[in-house]
Structure formats: structure tokens, C-alpha cells
Amino acid sequence: MSCHRPHLPSRRAKLTRKASHTMCASCHRKEVKKIRALAHKHPRVQTRCSSCHRPHKSRHPKLLRRQKKNLCLHCHKDRRRNPKHLVSFHKPVGQDCGKCHKSHGSNHPGLLTKPAQQQCMSCHKKVMTTHKATRSAHTSSACLKCHQPHRSRHPKLQRKSQVKLCLTCHNRSIRTQNGRVIKDIKAWLQQPHVHKPVREGKCSQCHQPHQSKQQMLLKYPLSFSFYVPFAKKSYKSCFKCHSPKMVTKKQTRKHTRFRNGALNLHFVHVNKARRGRNCLVCHDTHASRQPALIRSTVPYAKGAWKLPIRFTKQTNGGTCTSGCHKPKSYQRTTPLRTTPLRKGN
Q1: Alpha helices in the chain (DSSP H)
Q2: What sign does the CA torsion over 185, 191, 197, 199 have?
Q3: DSSP letter at 278?
Q4: For 6, which DSSP code?
Q5: H or E segment to which residue 322 belongs
Q6: Nearest alpha-carbon partner for 97 in 126, 124, 67
Q7: Which of 75, 74, 49, 73 is nearest to 62 (CA)?
Q8: Helix, strand or coil for residue 155?
Q9: pLDDT at 15 over 80
Q10: In the beta sheet, which residues pair with residue 147?
Q11: What three-state secondary structure class fits 97?
Q12: Separation CA 128–CA 340 (nearest Å)
């Protein structure tokens, strides 16, 4: 008999071999040979085939002990859903682990059917397609740096809350492939004034997490030039939250706090046909030492000179001293007399 001998009194189940997996291997030689050549093997393959397979008959294919979707979770109990504290689950979990994993062994860590990045892209084809045709993209080749493969306490299978996740890498200066240096965002966020989306943990309100057709992974267009002929499309990224009226209305009492009486000073600076000042000339996008996210310096002439800006916030207005002009003050309740910018400037 291949598996049993009836006259072996001391051996369990009167098996012809001491270990069940060696007995299985005596017939399944080709399969065993393939598994042995693999870099990563399922531990049970080398110790106990009967953990997953019934020896004689089964209701399930390949003599499996349980339905395929339940078989893995019988041992990997930590992969089961627990709605009390988990937010997101990978769809294949509990359906078919075989979509991502080999059951016996693999040449890839985690018994994956392919290298991790290829494994993710085999289903998430839209991410892969747009990643190749975009202007800016995260260059990391590891989806698993940001995402959990099975389940997570955070949306989108994220490993951490959004800001903490981004700052896992953005906790130092990063030089991009084109030579641009991204400053240490984590250190910069220690400033007293932080942009609202960052405070609320919503980096993705402005940035795409994977890739974008815009610079700096922005979701929407934003000009980075010092002088910009005014057009709403140039500031679409800002206007997704801020009303365009803060720039388009010359006279207003409600659309901006940056006004001298009813004269809208955002309009004065930005809304020009030729040399409108970019929003980024005065404002930082993440955090600042000064109120209203006013920058301390502004790179001018391709960074050759840094214009200083000093802003003093007051109860009903403020005072700005910069490399662009002499100190100028404004009040929202009682307008002050000011020297207007020259026409066209």
C-alpha cells in the first residue's frame, strides 16, 4: 500500500512514513521539486501538508479542507475583518488569497505571485497607466511603503494617518530627479501658522498621492512664476477652496480681510493683465512664521535674490514691509491713504 501498512502497530494512522509531508512527496515528486527550487516556501509545505489538504476526500477542489477563501484565514486569523477598529480592507482578502499569493512557494517575498509593485499594478491598472504619462510622480517603487496589503485602521489601506504618512519620507530635504530640492516639510510644519488642509490632515486636498499632470503632484493647475497675467485657471488649485471673488472683486466688504476699507488689496496685487503677483509671492503653501501664511522671503530672479517680507498683523488691518515697496498699512474699518502701485505693475 502507498500510504498505509496495516501491521505497523506503533505508528500513527499506520502510515508508511513517519512524517506525512514526506509521504506526500513520495508521489508528488514534480511538485516538490519545483517547491524546493523556490526562494520562499510556505512553512506548512515543509512540515504538514494535511494542515490544508485532506488525505482521502473533500468537498472542495484539490482536497482542500475548507473553501479557498476560508482556508488561509483559518490560520491567518489576524487577516480577518474586525469592524470595531478597522476602516479599510483589501477586496481580495476573504475572497481569494490566490490573486496575490502562491499557496506553496514563490521566488518573491510574502509568497507573492509577482514582485510587489507588479502585483499591485496587475489590478490597479489605472494607476500604472497614468503614472507613465504624467508630469510629476512619486518615484518610489514600493506601494507597500504607504499602503497595508490586507487591512488598515486608515482609509485607502494607508499605513498611517495622511500627514504622518507623508512625513515618513518628507522629514528631510529630498532632491528630485530633475535636481529640484524639496525642503524638509516636517521641520517646516513646526512654524506657528499652518495651512488649514495640513492642520486637518488632508495633504490630498491639494496633492495627488501617486502622480499628476501638474507640478509638485498638485491636483489642479497653479502658476509658479513671479509675475502672472491674471486668469482664474492659473490659480485653480487655490480657488478650489478660496473664492475667486477675493481676487476678482475690486471693491468688497466680505470676500477678503486684506483690504483698505472696501478696496480689495488682493485685487490690487494679483488682478493685472501683465504683471500680476502670484499668490506664492507672498504666501507659503504649508506653514509660515508670520500670520496669514505670509512668507519671510521670496525668491526673485530665479532665486538670485531673496526679497524680505515682514508682516505685522493688527486688530483691523496690518502693515507690510517688503523688498517690493516701502512700509504700507491698511485698515478694514477706516481706510488709510496709500500710494497706489503704478499702473501696469
Answers
A1: 20-27, 29-36, 68-75, 116-121, 125-132, 162-166, 185-188, 196-199, 236-239, 245-248, 265-270, 279-282
A2: positive
A3: P
A4: T
A5: strand 317-322
A6: 67
A7: 49
A8: helix
A9: no
A10: 158
A11: helix
A12: 52
Amino acid at residue number 155: P
Torsion of CA 263, 268, 270, 273, to 10 degrees: 120
Provide the CB-side half-sphere exposure for 97 (13 A, CA). 21
> Can you tell me which residue has the cell 502670484?
278
End-to-end CA distance of the chain: 98
Tens digit of pLDDT for each residue in 112-158? 999 988 899 888 887 766 555 566 677 655 788 899 999 899 999 99
Domain ranges of the chain: 191-331
Beta carbons of 193 and 289 less than 8 angstroms apart: yes
Confidence of residue 77 (pLDDT cuts 50, 70, 90): confident
Distance CA 73, CA 145 (A): 24
Integer-rounded Cα radius of gyration of the chain: 31
Q: Among residues 54, 71, 72, which one has the least CA distance to residue 63?
A: 54
Instruction: Report residue 318 as a C-alpha cell.
Output: 496690518
Grid coordinates of 159: 499605513
CA distance 107 to 311: 60
In DSSP terms, 270 is beta-bridged to none
257-296 exposure pattern, b = at least 16 Cβ within 10 A, e = fewer:
ebbbeebbbbbbbbbbeeebbbbbbbbbbbbbebeebbbe
